[in-house]
TrEMBL record, chain B:
The keyword Electron transport applies. GO terms for cellular component: cytochrome o ubiquinol oxidase complex; plasma membrane. The chain crosses the membrane at residues 20-44, 50-70, 82-103. Heterooctamer of two A chains, two B chains, two C chains and two D chains. Keywords: Cell membrane, Electron transport, Membrane, Oxidoreductase, Transmembrane, Transmembrane helix, Transport. One of its GO terms (molecular function) is cytochrome bo3 ubiquinol oxidase activity. This is Cytochrome bo(3) ubiquinol oxidase subunit 4. It is a multi-pass membrane protein. GO terms for biological process: aerobic electron transport chain; electron transport coupled proton transport.
Length: 205, 124
């Protein structure tokens, strides 16, 4: 900071504004990362769209997908979006123990989603409908699997943040990281809207 | 959008969301998801209208979650985030629509299996 300027109000005030701007820049940088992640998913969606009809004589979406099961997964992911929102509200209110509670609830539902997805993939492999069966299934496993990997990474980050909130409390760094994780988590719910619409429901037409 | 938000761009309170805004977003998402699944599972719409209906419901739900969960808005401090999003959507639409269009054309113009080059030339 330039000490020769005389119109800086006070060091503490200046530092506060400075760290606040840094935090804002970090969150914006994370948003730009999410936008680049968006492009990864758009390429995978385009690939799936092109290959969806290429079943090579194997099973198609109508034979494989159980919509009531997918509706369950969708509901669970939507609940995690809401519970994470509650954690963020408690964070802004400074209620540390409530933040931990809501994050733990979010992690529990997130783990349930991952478990359901792993079971779904295992069933498909068991039926002989693995990624090697047809171009349709290759594209399906890569697209839905990439989303699943993102949720898994988000889940690990979530558990890390529960630990950091417990250890350090709601300081500036923890708040900034939670703000980034919040964007990441809600973003994955947005991607899932496209997955259930264009992969599962579209596959039934 | 309240005038307060425009006059006080440093005030972050309005962009944090509240229990009410998260509840509105959650309930609206539930309804839209229910309509999407119902349209296909309950065959509420005709086969021809199914895809347009699904696309409309998905776009609506994406917008609702962007506003109520990700707090996207037009407040001055959010404009750069919004600009990045709009640009990404433009690239995304180009990639997806372009791929589908090009590959669809390639598919319908591909020579059917079992047809020789000479017989393909004879086709009107």
């Amino acid at each position: 900071m330039d000490t020769s300027t005389t119109n800086i109000p006070s060091p503490s005030h200046g530092d506060h504004a400075h760290s606040h701007d840094d935090s804002r820049n970090t969150v914006m940088g994370f948003w730009l990362y999410l936008m680049s992640d968006c492009l990864i998913f758009s390429v995978l969606f385009a690939t799936f769209g092109v290959l969806a009809a290429n079943t090579a004589g194997g099973p198609d979406g109508r034979d494989l997908f159980k919509l009531s099961y997918v509706a369950g997964e969708t509901l669970i992911l939507l609940i995690t979006s809401f519970t994470f929102g509650m954690a963020m509200i408690q964070m802004h209110a400074g209620a540390k123990s409530k933040v931990i509670l809501w994050l733990a609830i979010t992690a529990a539902f997130g783990a349930a989603f991952i478990a359901m997805e792993i079971y779904e993939f295992a069933e498909l492999l068991h039926e002989g409908a693995g990624p090697g069966r047809s171009a349709f299934l290759s594209a399906y496993f890569v697209l839905v699997g990439t989303h699943g990997l993102h949720v898994t990474a988000g889940l690990m980050w979530l558990i890390t943040m529960i630990h950091q909130t417990m250890t350090y409390g709601l300081d500036g760094i923890v708040r900034r990281r939670l703000a980034c994780l919040s964007l990441f988590w809600h973003f994955l719910d947005l991607v899932w809207i496209c997955v259930f619409t264009f992969v599962y429901l579209r596959g039934m037409l | 959008m309240s005038p307060h938000q425009i006059s006080a761009p440093r005030d972050h309170k309005n962009t944090h969301g509240s229990v009410a805004s998260y509840t509105v977003g959650f309930v609206a998402s539930l309804i839209l998801t229910g309509l999407s699944f119902g349209a296909i599972m309950g065959r509420w719409v005709s086969h021809d209208m199914a895809l347009p209906t699904l696309v409309c419901l998905a776009v609506l739900q994406l917008l609702i979650q962007l506003v109520f969960f990700l707090h996207m808005g037009t407040a001055p401090e959010q404009r750069s985030d919004l600009a990045a999003l709009v640009f990404t959507v433009l690239i995304l639409a180009t990639i997806v629509a372009g791929s589908l269009w090009v590959m669809h054309n390639a598919n319908i113009n591909m020579m059917p299996t079992g047809m020789s080059t000479d017989s393909a030339k004879l086709k009107p």
